[in-house]
Design goal:
One of its GO terms (cellular component) is membrane. It holds the Pfam family COG3_N. The chain is mostly helical. It has one domain. Helices cover 96% and strands 0% of the residues. The protein is built from three helices and no strands. It is rod-shaped. 1% of the residues are buried.
């Protein structure tokens, strides 16, 4: 009878170990999925940072190109106010700014 009890204990232990092994396998599968998703997310974030840097550079270049229009508007305002003849240093300064924008 004692051999039967030991055999039953061993059988129960084997079932529990099989169940634990199945749980560990499932947990490892989930871990691998998390690693895969984390890696993909990291790569997407790196791409987004790269895209953001390119967009910032493009925006800066565009702002520099549009600055000339602000300078032209300044020249037009000075001419409209008649400052070109009355205040030559204001007009000269405005023209210098326009030259600097070009």
């Amino acid at each position: 009878r004692s051999i039967e009890q030991v055999q039953e204990i061993c059988s129960e232990t084997c079932r529990e170990l099989d169940s634990l092994l199945g749980s560990l396998t499932e947990l490892d599968d989930k871990r691998q999925e998390v690693v895969r998703k984390t890696t993909a997310l990291h790569e997407e974030c790196e791409q987004m940072v790269h895209d953001q840097e390119q967009l910032s550079s493009s925006a800066e270049t565009l702002a520099e190109r549009l600055d000339i229009f602000d300078r032209v508007a300044d020249v037009a305002r000075v001419l409209d106010q008649g400052s070109a003849t009355g205040q030559p240093d204001v007009f000269g300064s405005t023209l210098d700014q326009l030259d600097g924008a070009i």
